[in-house]
Amino acid sequence: MKPESIVLTVAGMCFGVLLGWVLATMNDSRIASAPAAAAAPQQAPSAGNERAPAQLDEGEVQALTTILTNDPNNAGAAAQLAETYFRAEKMEEAIKWYREALRLDPKNINASTQLGMALFVTQGAEAALEQFEKSLRLDPKHARTLLSKGIVLWQGKNDLAGAEAVWRKVIEVAPDSAEAGLAKQGLQGLTGRQGGAAPSEGQ
């Protein structure tokens, strides 16, 4: 299921759907065996209904653990194992393996950003934002990081202006990306502007 097809109900959105925004963009080539269809929610729940997390894929965990036992320096397998736990919302285990992936491959910006989202769940907004800054030092225009930062500013800091600014930057730097589509939906929820399009100069 493509991210663009996810139906988001911004008003009354539960945190599980916020995670779904990020899960929907987990298409990095280094974790290609983690299909987006399994990661993305089929639709946003109505207000008051919690989205059940995906079931942990024990077979995938076992397979990746075996790879890492035989090849402890396999950064891709460590990142993929972290993604497996993240999709099942097993955040403590996800954090452990994101950190290991980054130890092995410090430039893995997607792992860094997903670590930030896992830290948001477990430790709060400040820890997440600190991690996002590490990601943005690797690439100031990284769309997934900017999208995630906006989510945390919105939900963790109640900084609507900050979230709006970051999401507009997503649209500016990656206008045709899935992240831009999700940022537009977020902007529509925040501002009521159709499509979340930024106003032109002078408006």
Describe the structure.
The chain is mainly alpha-helical and 203 residues long. It has one domain (3-46, 57-195): Tetratricopeptide repeat domain (Serine Threonine Protein Phosphatase 5, Tetratricopeptide repeat), CATH 1.25.40. 62% of the residues lie in helices and 0% in strands. The chain contains 10 helices and no strands. The chain has helices at 15-23, 36-39, 58-70, 75-87, 91-104, 109-123, 125-138, 143-157, 160-173, 178-191. α7 (125-138) packs antiparallel against α8 (143-157). The longest helix is centred in the middle third of the chain and has 15 residues, at 109-123. The protein is elongated and about 50 Å long.
In what range is the share of β-strand residues?
A: under 5%
* Largest β sheet strand count, sense and barrel closure: none
> What gross morphology would you assign?
elongated
Count of discrete alpha- or pi-helical segments spanning 4 or more residues? 10
Number of strands: 0
Gyration radius, rounded: 17 Å
* Unreliable stretches: 1-14, 27-49, 193-203
Q: How many independent structural domains?
A: 1
The CATH topology name reads Serine Threonine Protein Phosphatase 5, Tetratricopeptide repeat
What is the CATH level 1 assignment?
Mainly Alpha
CATH superfamily: Tetratricopeptide repeat domain
Distance between the termini: 37 Å
DSSP helix fraction: 55-70%
How do the helices and strands follow one another from N- to C-terminus? HHHHHHHHHH
Structural class of the secondary structure composition? mainly alpha
CATH architecture group name: Alpha Horseshoe
